[in-house]
Design a protein that fits this description.
This protein is mainly β. The chain is 9% helix and 45% strand. The N terminus is likely disordered.
């Protein structure tokens, strides 16, 4: 059996990071009885077997490793420590190789790490910091990361850059726009643009509907729309010249091919709704009490909604699309693995505090 993809499970206990390696495997028997239509659907899927590898990080201040994981360079993974904004490079066998970055505004320092991308042909790691509006590039050697260049991004006005990557010889930027006009009309879009050598916006190549919004009331009584942090988010993943994107309202995915400029669609229509329950509401009210107390609109909205978002991010890798289902306090979680060629769906059982 060969390793075909890698998912990552971060424990916030001491300084250990667990990497879950997905291996081709056979279907397992069902272990629990379903309590809902969605759970029954999931447990009826063939299960992919997994094994685990542990990475030890011997730094007391590293108490949690959370956030983006990039793993397209052979035999290496990259992890972000959100406590001090550091980047770790490790082998997939668990050997820690190097660490770069810390909180700050100087070269190689970060006020936030919002996205990472690896360019396998060039052995380069790209790190995006929205707060500092800059891209930092590292050369990836056998056992270390070497700071190579820093790009200060231009001002995009009301276009907010979310992601940057290269497709063939083109640099691509994904921008978020949320504008409310006097007539209460709202522009809520993601725009995909080519960027020039100075990272300025050029040709628009794609327009995508934005994430779910919620209407809020300001101190002065004015109404305005904001992105609903507990709602159906529009997410994307770039892989091998293709941009996969979807909204968490359903499991319908579109794929934009940068070579042909064609859009294909994959509809997974047989999956049951993710029903909101009293147990889910209780869990969310306790876990995010500070947010709900400060934003009563979110609390009222969440208690009233009938269905829940399926996911908050996706991951495209070769012929597979990985969909980590949002876990609302369950003892076990699942990642769905969709084969784009055969349209077969499989499941991967994961710990409740799993992050991919």
């Amino acid at each position: 059996m060969g390793c075909i993809a890698h998912l990552f499970y971060m424990k916030t206990i001491y300084t250990h990071v667990i990497i879950i390696l997905l291996l081709l495997g056979c279907s397992k028997g069902k272990e629990v009885q379903p309590s809902s239509g969605l759970e029954s659907y999931i447990l009826d899927l063939p299960e992919v077997e997994v094994s685990k590898t542990k990475i030890d990080i011997d730094r007391e201040q590293v108490s949690s490793i959370l956030g983006t994981i990039e793993n397209s360079i052979p035999d290496k993974v990259f992890l972000i420590d959100h406590n001090v904004w550091s980047i770790f490079m490790a082998k997939k066998d668990g050997t820690l190789l190097d660490q770069k970055g810390r909180q700050g505004r100087g070269p190689g320092e970060y006020m936030g790490i919002n996205d990472m991308y690896t360019y396998i042909d060039e052995s380069v790691l790209q790190v995006f910091d929205k707060k500092l509006k800059r891209l930092t590039y590292y050369d990836i050697t056998e056992d270390s990361l070497k700071l190579s260049s820093i790009v200060h991004l231009p001002d995009y006005g009301q276009y907010y850059l979310q992601s940057v990557f290269k497709s063939n010889d083109n640099t691509v930027g994904i921008f978020r726009v949320l504008r409310q006009y006097e007539n209460m009309e709202v522009e809520n879009k993601l725009y995909v643009h080519y960027l020039d050598e100075e990272f300025r916006m050029k040709e628009k190549i794609l327009e995508i509907e934005g994430s779910e919004l919620i209407e809020t009331t300001g101190i002065d009584g004015s109404k305005r729309f904001r992105e609903n942090i507990f709602g159906n988010e529009t997410v994307w993943s770039f892989n091998n010249g293709k941009l996969f994107y979807s909204n968490a309202e359903n499991l319908n995915f579109k794929v934009f091919n940068f070579n042909t400029k064609n859009i294909s669609e994959h509809k997974i229509s047989d999956i049951p709704e993710y029903i909101n329950t009293s147990e889910t509401i209780d869990f969310m009210m306790k876990r995010y009490s500070s947010i709900f107390n400060y934003n009563p609109e979110y609390e009222a909205y969440f208690k009233q909604r009938k269905t829940l978002p399926y996911f908050s991010h996706i991951y495209a890798s070769d012929k597979f699309l990985y969909i980590p289902l949002t876990n609302y306090g369950n003892e076990k979680g699942h990642v769905l693995r969709f084969n784009i060629e055969t349209r077969q769906m499989e499941r991967i059982e994961i710990p409740p505090n799993f992050y991919m």
